[in-house]
Design brief:
By secondary structure, the protein is mainly β. The chain folds into 2 domains: 55 residues, Nucleic acid-binding proteins (OB fold (Dihydrolipoamide Acetyltransferase, E2P)), CATH 2.40.50; 156 residues, Jelly Rolls, CATH 2.60.120. Helix content is 10%, strand content 45%. The strands form 4 sheets. Strands 6, 7, 9, 11, 14, 16, 18 and 19 form an 8-stranded antiparallel sheet that branches.
């Protein structure tokens, strides 16, 4: 049989462990703190369930999803909030990344588009992005613009710029072709599959711009998304793409 001293020691240890467990769970004892938790369900009223806790999330937490690892903050009253998911890489949902061209680049004697190594960004498998770009170019042989994408990538894009034949206005209200004008230019507006290219016209060495918007839906394969370009018509007179052209991707899913 245990002595009364041993019984008292066992009882003391049991009471200490019970008090410790109770304190770990009681916010009035523990006070404010934070913890990591994994989202197991997304509610309809600005809450997520994580590790069995119902947690209200901030407006800045975009598109919460099951599996997100979040930081849960708790105040001394027991209220739980999260500011959002922890980053899992360089391309989280909500990230906006840009890739500028920092030097002028010319291409001649080719109408086969090739990736621009400066205007290139990695994309995540199954990611969804809005696409923006600005391409400043010149060249009598025009510029052909398209994209290098991972296998299985889908989407659409639109580039606002000159047609293959540059059509501009005259002072009398008419039009002229392949001539510079201060009266404005006609602009092509077609929507184009992400797998296809468009050609934009040039006039001698005059610099023009193409403003691009679109949507990119990456498939199961991650990889690089890049501006791909060449001359519209292969020739010895080079086409230039200039410094301060840029590519930008904004991930929304």
């Amino acid at each position: 049989m245990k002595s009364s001293l041993s019984v008292h020691r066992d009882l003391k240890a049991a009471l200490q462990q019970q008090a410790k467990r109770t304190g770990e769970q009681a916010s009035t004892v523990r006070g404010s703190d934070w913890r990591l938790a994994t989202v197991t369900a997304v509610g309809a009223a600005g809450t997520v369930t994580a590790d069995g806790l119902t947690v209200r999330y901030m407006e800045s937490y975009l598109q919460p999803a099951v599996g997100d690892v979040i930081v849960v903050d708790q105040n001394s009253a027991g209220n739980l909030i999260t500011r959002g998911r922890l980053a899992t890489g360089v391309d989280p949902i909500g990230a906006v990344r840009a890739a500028p061209r920092t030097t002028d680049l010319s291409r001649a004697n080719t109408n086969v588009p090739a990736s621009d190594t400066q205007m290139t960004l990695p994309v995540t498998a199954n990611g969804r992005y809005t696409l923006d770009a600005y391409i400043k170019y010149s060249g009598a042989n025009d510029v052909l613009i398209g994209w290098t994408v991972p296998s299985g990538t889908l989407g659409e894009w639109q580039g606002l710029g000159n047609g293959i034949v540059v059509t501009s206005a005259t002072s009398g209200g008419g039009t002229q072709q392949d001539a510079i004008s201060t009266w404005g230019y006609n602009v092509r507006t077609e929507s184009t599959d992400i797998a296809n290219t468009r050609t934009y016209g040039g006039v001698a060495t005059t610099a023009f711009g193409v403003q691009i918007r679109g949507t990119v839906r990456v498939g199961s394969a991650a990889g690089n998304f890049a501006v791909a370009w060449a001359q519209g018509a292969s020739g010895a007179t080079a086409t230039f793409v200039y410094t301060d052209s840029w590519l930008r991707l904004s991930r929304f899913a």
